[in-house]
Amino acid sequence: MKELTENFTITTNLRDCFDELKMSSILDLTQEIATHHADILHVGFNDFIKDNLIWVIVRNRFEIIKDISNLSNVTIKTYPLKNNLMEYPRDYEIYNGKNELIIKGRSIWMIYSLNKKNVATPHLEIYEEGRKGVFENRLKRLPKPLKNKEDYVKDIIVRQSLLDHNMHLNNSHCADLFIDLFNPSKDIKIKSFQIEYTSQCYLNDLISVYKYKIDNKYYVYAYKDDTLKFYFEVECNM
Known about the structure:
Blueprint: E1 4-9, H1 23-40, H2 45-49, E2 53-64, E3 73-80, E4 88-95, E5 101-113, E6 118-120, E7 152-157, H3 171-175, H4 177-182, E8 189-197, E9 206-214, E10 217-224, E11 227-237
Antiparallel strand pairs: 1-3, 2-5, 2-8, 3-4, 4-5, 5-6, 7-9, 8-11, 9-10, 10-11
């Protein structure tokens, strides 16, 4: 099963105050099906942890193709693509109840060795040879932002409720900062977003959050002292 399709119910908590599917919910749902598929392919958490390996996500990009408001259920299709050196891409197609493609996306994963404290590159035959993904080209990293005191908004503390089972800040929580920092109106519709995870956040870390906006693109980035932790770009239709 080098491709997996599953149905998901969209609960109230997965929508924002305007009944739009939240970015964090898109990340949660796709991470959930990715986890299921990895288990089926015998490369899941329980398989890897025996060798002191874990999956870590380094990049997410999603594009909104059709309306994502008032959804009651979605169908998600996922499949891994051939790895590019250390990067293991996985693609997603999200369909509404009418079987219309409404979201497409890709996550870039790496495999981390807990023993050696570095990236591992085992040979995994988990992809379909010649499979084309949702994006034509390789997903490149966004340019890294530099700390600018004029962009500073606030400090946040990583609480236990934000951690995943690797004891890191769950990647999906970062996306909610777009809503909290920019307070978008109902008329602002997300066209695409890309999130870069550069360094893990741990319990009780004090994270300084920054924001800025250029035309219809919104940017959020976060530092702990001088270490960039994560950053993202959200493009909206105005």
